[in-house]
Design brief:
This protein is an all-alpha fold. It contains 5 helices and no strands. It has helices at about 1-30, 35-60, 75-90, 95-115, 120-150. The N and C termini lie far apart (about 55 Å). The mean pLDDT is about 85.
Length: about 150
């Protein structure tokens, strides 16, 4: 029973992280000028929404009647930071990319922590697959950020 509570807690934590990313990327898409970045950020926002739904389904299978639906306080603060940053820099794509990368660092860390937990086989496979896609998104955002710094 205690292990089940831990698993549900881990799942809810990941859902919160995904909701943060979903909202963060949505805000970033609205803040950038580059149409390719807009499209990429929208795609990542939708990806996070899909991942959260997938984990909400898993949480229910573990008996969680109300899986996490909202983002974290830290996420709210992160979004506020993106808002402030984009307002101050009048939508500076490089600054927004830097903020997105910081948010992605947090997501990668949350997934790495979750992978250390004793997750059951089907859940571990889902978390592992999501982790590799989130890591890939992180690396892409970092690459774009580095390229923006050089231009």
């Amino acid at each position: 029973m205690a292990q089940q509570k831990e698993i549900i807690s881990t799942i809810n934590s990941l859902i919160e992280t995904l909701k943060d990313g979903q909202e963060g990327f949505k805000q970033a898409a609205e803040g950038v000028k580059d149409p390719n970045l807009k499209s990429l950020f929208r795609e990542y926002s939708q990806q996070r929404s899909r991942f959260a739904s997938e984990l909400q389904t898993e949480a229910r299978s573990f008996g969680e009647t109300e899986p996490e639906k909202s983002s974290s306080v830290a996420g709210a603060m992160h979004r506020a930071w993106i808002n402030i940053k984009s307002a101050v820099t009048s939508g500076d794509d490089g600054a927004i990319l830097s903020e997105c990368e910081r948010g992605e660092d947090s997501a990668v860390n949350e997934y790495e922590k979750a992978m250390e937990d004793n997750l059951s086989s089907p859940l571990r496979e889902i978390v592992s697959r999501q982790y590799s896609e989130i890591k890939s998104a992180h690396d892409r955002v970092k690459q774009l950020r580095d390229a923006a710094k050089q231009s």
